[in-house]
Design goal:
Blueprint (H helix, E strand, L loop, with lengths): L1 H17 L8 H11 L5 E2 L5 E6 L11 E9 L5 E4 L7 E4 L5 H9 L5 E6 L20 E11 L2 H7 L1
Antiparallel strand pairs: 1-2, 2-6, 3-4, 3-5, 3-7, 6-7
Length: 161
Amino acid sequence: MTTIFIYAILPFSSLLLSGCGDPCRSEIDQKVLELAATEPGAQKLPSGLIYLELKPGLGPSPGPNDKVHVRYTGMLTDSTVFDYTVKYRSPRKIALQNAIPGWIEGLQKMNYGAKAKLTIPPHLAYGKRGKKFSIPSCAILIFEIELLGIEKSILDEAEQS
């Protein structure tokens, strides 16, 4: 009886196990990430973030607890812009600890005054949940970010002492 049960369930086991992997991993997304990583100067970091410096900066880099002043454009892979700051507005101030993991990692690689392109895989962005009304589930995000200011955290200054 047990043998019959095992043979009856065996064909369906692959269906059950297929749900155990990354729910956002698709061949198309992998090709997009591979293409971004081949851009001249692009660096694929161990986390999967793809970092491309567009303009070097000269100053310090922010720490994970700092606040940053940035101008940016956020796009989906089909070039749909879902968020941006425009040149005539003041830069947006963001506490890195409240940002998505791709921003935290990418901005810490930048120096004050730098501009970079971040291609962020879903697991470093909003993942399967997406962001209501603007970012679909499992979306790769592309940001062009300019780092215009850093407010050092007391925590980061204490660690450096």
